[in-house]
């Protein structure tokens, strides 16, 4: 159910997330395919690239989730909300979006602590052996990006009320 | 602390979900709140979010979604329909049986029910209407047959189950789902033939018949895909993720070089759309692991499971309770979300009764497959009804028979675990 105001286009185009998500998907396929081809011809395996593919999976999940906030395409149960009065449904939507914002802000905030731990304990990645913070630093960045999209949606909802 | 925390966990989750919160948020927010209030260590929030997604087996999920979409956009469904129709010709119920077969074949390429059902519905419903099948029936049938996609390997549902229940490997689940998937599809043939004969559907001749050989030459590229995917897995040469990637490149080759139906723009759109569909599922998985961490550390899931076991210690009664629970949940949620919500509670129960994790996974998936086309909240039926231009209510009188047929197939699988377990054992998984 699309509600008035919720579907107006955001000022920051969602094309950014689209391009990043497509790039992550394409890279995952290329790396895995290259792995199959190399193993076929040389008996060598660069399975250690797994950790990079798995990192790309995290990127894919967050940028895609960010786009899904704009498009309102996250999986949710609309059964009860559709039976509320428009005013109640509006309040419920605002409340739910506020919770969503706090959650992703918390992921970003405590994610900084995770990165700090990785730096302090000089954790290295299991496969390639690079510092783990090179990967984990993107969790707060991506979490904050989703939180910003949620905030944008709250603002558009509020402006479009009436 | 267990009681308060447990109430907060389950109560908060249900309340948020009812208010229309995205499932991922309902899981993550209550999980984080319980972790905070019960002092379980808040760093579990970022750790579980990252660790919940960063798993090698999960890589297969977006890639199989991509593979299914590449084949759909390349026009594989259309050519397989043409070939199977030219084989069976026009007699009563023939097109109905073709619809089932095509859905099952496509299920061997794609791993998600709604995508499979949409592809077949768009190609077949107009032609079936010309032969006298009511659109509401065609929509019901394709929704039901499309649901076998999550049983016939490859399957997104099995990948998610395996990520949550690592004792059940993806290859073992794929092999275990094959016979139940075929059985579910064949079970649908019975009501289709009975209804077609009684109502005289399909007696009218089709417009023009494509020569068998020519349609075969076009369809062979699509027909070969399940063989490549399953063959690669069977030989043990590919991991599931690698098999999915090989399927993607094969699909691109067919779409770009053979059928010339995909250009650069179409490929970019396929990448974007499959990435976004996958992301919506994966963010739920990430935040469900926060919820699971809170529930497990608190002991809330075990307590809830003990509560259920306390109700009945009879195996059959427990299976019936679980089936009803999943069917009711299936009216509100899609299949993969049901796994993520219920598995933490169901696994301790399965362990208590000593159920095989592969058999239990296949049985639950079959249950979920039925939920995908049981009104009122049926993801597959919503898609096919929209394409057929009929209301969900109009399908009820037809879809009832199909639900019944597949329930019988599910009872067989529940009663004879060998239907699931024989193939994985024979293949050595």
N- to C-terminal distance of chain B: 42 Å
Radius of gyration of chain B: 22 Å
Low-confidence runs of at least 5 consecutive residues of chain A:
1-6
Write down how many β-strands of chain B occur, each being a DSSP E stretch of 2 or more residues: 0
Q: What characterizes the major β-sheet of chain B?
A: none
Summarize the amount of helix of chain B as a percent range.
over 70%
State the gist of this model.
The complex is a heterodimer of chains A (162) and B (429). By secondary structure, chain A is mainly α.
Structural account:
The complex is a heterodimer of chains A (162) and B (429). Chain A is mostly helical and 162 residues long. In chain A, 69% of the residues lie in helices and 0% in strands. In chain A, helix 2 (50-71) packs parallel to helix 5 (138-159). Chain B is mostly helical and 429 residues long. Chain B has 20 helices and no strands. Chain B has helices at 2-18, 23-37, 44-53, 60-74, 76-88, 94-107, 113-130, 135-146, 156-164, 170-199, 212-234, 240-258, 264-298, 300-311, 315-330, 335-353, 357-371, 379-388, 392-415, 418-426. Chain B starts with a helix and ends with a helix. The interface between A and B is large, with 56 and 57 residues.
Write the layout of secondary structure elements.
The complex is a heterodimer of chains A (162) and B (429).
Chain A: H1 15-42, H2 50-71, H3 86-120, H4 133-136, H5 138-159
Helix pairs in contact in A: 1-2, 2-5, 3-5
Chain B: H1 2-18, H2 23-37, H3 44-53, H4 60-74, H5 76-88, H6 94-107, H7 113-130, H8 135-146, H9 156-164, H10 170-199, H11 212-234, H12 240-258, H13 264-298, H14 300-311, H15 315-330, H16 335-353, H17 357-371, H18 379-388, H19 392-415, H20 418-426
Search tags:
heterodimer, A: 162 residues, mainly alpha, disordered N terminus, B: 429 residues, 78% helix, globular
């Amino acid at each position: 159910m699309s509600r008035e105001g919720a579907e107006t286009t955001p000022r920051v185009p969602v094309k950014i997330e689209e391009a990043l998500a497509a790039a992550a998907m394409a890279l995952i396929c290329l790396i895995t395919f290259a792995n199959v081809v190399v193993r076929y011809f040389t008996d060598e395996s660069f399975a250690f690239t797994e950790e990079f593919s798995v990192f790309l999976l995290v990127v894919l999940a967050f940028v895609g989730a960010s786009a899904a906030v704009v498009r309102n395409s996250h999986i949710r149960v609309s059964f009860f909300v559709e039976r509320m009065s428009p005013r109640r449904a509006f309040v419920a939507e605002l409340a739910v979006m506020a919770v969503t914002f706090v959650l992703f802000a918390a992921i970003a905030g405590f994610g900084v602590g995770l990165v700090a731990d990785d730096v302090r304990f000089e954790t290295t990645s299991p496969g390639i052996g690079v510092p783990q913070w090179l990967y984990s630093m993107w969790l707060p960045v991506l979490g904050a990006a989703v939180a910003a999209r949620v905030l944008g949606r709250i603002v558009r909802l509020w402006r479009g009320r009436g | 602390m267990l009681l308060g925390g447990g109430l907060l966990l389950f109560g908060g989750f249900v309340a948020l979900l009812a208010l229309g919160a995205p499932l991922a948020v309902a899981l993550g927010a209550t999980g984080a709140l319980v972790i905070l209030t019960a002092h379980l260590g808040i760093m579990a929030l970022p750790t579980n979010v990252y660790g919940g997604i960063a798993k090698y087996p999960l890589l297969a999920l977006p890639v199989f979604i991509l593979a299914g979409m590449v084949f759909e956009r390349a026009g594989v469904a259309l050519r397989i329909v043409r070939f199977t129709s030219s084989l069976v010709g026009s007699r009563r119920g023939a097109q109905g049986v073709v619809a089932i077969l095509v859905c099952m074949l496509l299920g061997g390429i794609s791993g998600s029910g709604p995508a499979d059902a949409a592809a077949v519905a768009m190609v077949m419903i107009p032609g079936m209407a010309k032969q006298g099948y009511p659109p509401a029936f065609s929509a019901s049938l394709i929704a039901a047959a499309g649901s076998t996609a999550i049983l016939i390997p490859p399957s997104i549902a099995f990948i998610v189950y395996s990520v949550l229940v690592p004792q059940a490997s993806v290859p073992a689940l794929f092999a275990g789902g094959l016979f139940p998937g075929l059985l579910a599809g064949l079970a649908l043939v019975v009501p289709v033939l009975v209804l077609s004969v009684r109502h005289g559907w399909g007696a009218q001749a089709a417009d023009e018949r494509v020569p068998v050989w020519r349609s075969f030459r076009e369809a062979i590229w699509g027909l070969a895909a399940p063989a490549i995917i399953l063959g690669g897995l069977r030989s043990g040469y590919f991991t599931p993720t690698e098999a999915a990637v090989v399927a993607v490149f094969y699909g691109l080759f067919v779409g770009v070089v053979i059928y010339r139906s995909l250009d650069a723009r179409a490929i970019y759109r396929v990448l974007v759309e499959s990435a976004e569909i996958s992301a919506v599922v994966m963010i739920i998985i990430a935040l469900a692991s926060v919820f699971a961490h809170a529930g497990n550390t608190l002991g809330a899931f075990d307590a809830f499971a003990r509560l259920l076991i306390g109700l009945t210690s009879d195996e059959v009664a427990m299976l019936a309770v679980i089936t009803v629970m999943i069917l009711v949940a299936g009216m509100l949620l899609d299949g993969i979300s049901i796994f993520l919500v219920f598995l933490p509670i169901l696994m301790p129960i399965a362990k208590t009764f000593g159920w095989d994790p592969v058999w239990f996974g296949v049985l639950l998936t079959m249950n979920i497959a039925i939920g995908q086309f049981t009104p009122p909240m049926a993801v597959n039926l919503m898609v096919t009804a929209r394409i057929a231009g009929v209301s969900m209510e109009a399908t009820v009188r037809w879809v009832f028979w199909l639900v019944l047929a597949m329930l019988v197939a599910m009872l067989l699988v529940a009663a004879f675990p060998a239907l699931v377990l024989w193939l994985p054992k024979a293949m050595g998984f």
